[in-house]
Amino acid sequence: MEARKMKTVKLSNGVEVPILGFGTFQITDLVEAENAVRDAIQAGYRHIDTAQSYLNEEAVGKGIATSGVDRKDLFVTTKIWVENVSYDGVKASFERSLTRLGLDYIDLLLIHQPYSDVYGAWRAMEELQKDGKVRAIGVSNFGVDRAVDLAEFNDVTPQMNQIEINPFQQQVTNVDALKAEGIMVEAWAPFAEGKNDIFHNEILGSIGKKYNKSIAQVILRWLVERDIVVLAKSTKPERMQQNLDVFNFELTEEDKKQIATLNDGESQFFSHADPEMIKWMASRKLGV
C-alpha cells in the first residue's frame, strides 16, 4: 500500500495523524524491533508507536533511521512511564527518550498510565509542546472523567487518549464522550491479543468472507470507520501489508450490528481501577 492512500484524522490542534499505526509493544528483541519498524515503514506505515516502558525506543529509532523515509513524513509516538510522571520526571525522561530515538522532536507524547503526579507531568508536557519539542500531547488509559479533569484545570485539553478497544470491549459510550470533549481516541489491542479465539470468530469470519478479507482486516476497518486511530503489530512483512490493505471496502450497517453483538463491555486484560494493579505499576521501576 502506498503511504499516500493512508487515511488521516485531525487532532484538535490541527495535527494530522495517520489512522493506522504500527505498535511495538512486546517486541523486546532489539534486533527484531529495529527490523520490524524498518519493514513496517517500507510496507507503508507512517505512524510508529513506542513507549519508555517497552524498552525498545533505541531500536525503534534505528529502524526509523534506516527506513529510507524522511523523518518529516513520519508520525512518532512515545509515552512517559509511571516512575517519570511528574514535572521534573517528564522533562528529564523526555530528553532521554529523544536521545534513544535519535530524533529532534516527537509527534505525540502521552502519559502512559493515569497514576502519580499527572498534573505536574501535564504542565511539563504543555511546555514541551509550546517549545516545539512535541507536536501533540495526550494520555493513555485515562477514563473520560480523568481526561476531562485534566483538561479543565490546565491550559491544554489532551489531544489524544489511547485506550483498549476491540470487538469484546467496544467502548462506544466512552469514545463518544471523549470525542465530544475534542479528544481523539486511539485503540490499543484491537485484536485483544488473540483472546476469546478472536481469529476464529464466526461472526468476524463470515463478514471477512464477503469481502475476501481476513478477520484482522475486518477489525481494523471497523475501527477506521469509527474514526478511531488504531495500532496493529506484526513482525511479519506480509502481515504488515495485509493490515494496511483496509481502504478498499466498507462495512454495511448489518455488519456493524453483528460486530456490536460481540461486545461484553469489559477489559480483556485488567482494570485500571484495581488497587493491586496500581501498586504493581507504582513498583515497576525501569530506570528509563
Automatic annotation (TrEMBL):
<feature type="active site" description="Proton donor">
    <location>
        <position position="54"/>
    </location>
</feature>
<dbReference type="InterPro" id="IPR018170">
    <property type="entry name" value="Aldo/ket_reductase_CS"/>
</dbReference>
<dbReference type="InterPro" id="IPR020471">
    <property type="entry name" value="AKR"/>
</dbReference>
<keyword id="KW-0560">Oxidoreductase</keyword>
<keyword id="KW-0521">NADP</keyword>
<dbReference type="InterPro" id="IPR036812">
    <property type="entry name" value="NAD(P)_OxRdtase_dom_sf"/>
</dbReference>
<feature type="site" description="Lowers pKa of active site Tyr">
    <location>
        <position position="79"/>
    </location>
</feature>
<feature type="domain" description="NADP-dependent oxidoreductase">
    <location>
        <begin position="20"/>
        <end position="263"/>
    </location>
</feature>
<dbReference type="Pfam" id="PF00248">
    <property type="entry name" value="Aldo_ket_red"/>
</dbReference>
<dbReference type="InterPro" id="IPR023210">
    <property type="entry name" value="NADP_OxRdtase_dom"/>
</dbReference>
<comment type="similarity">
    <text>Belongs to the aldo/keto reductase family.</text>
</comment>
<feature type="binding site">
    <location>
        <position position="112"/>
    </location>
    <ligand>
        <name>substrate</name>
    </ligand>
</feature>
<dbReference type="GO" id="GO:0016616">
    <property type="term" value="F:oxidoreductase activity, acting on the CH-OH group of donors, NAD or NADP as acceptor"/>
</dbReference>
<protein>
    <submittedName>
        <fullName>Aldo keto reductase family oxidoreductase</fullName>
    </submittedName>
</protein>
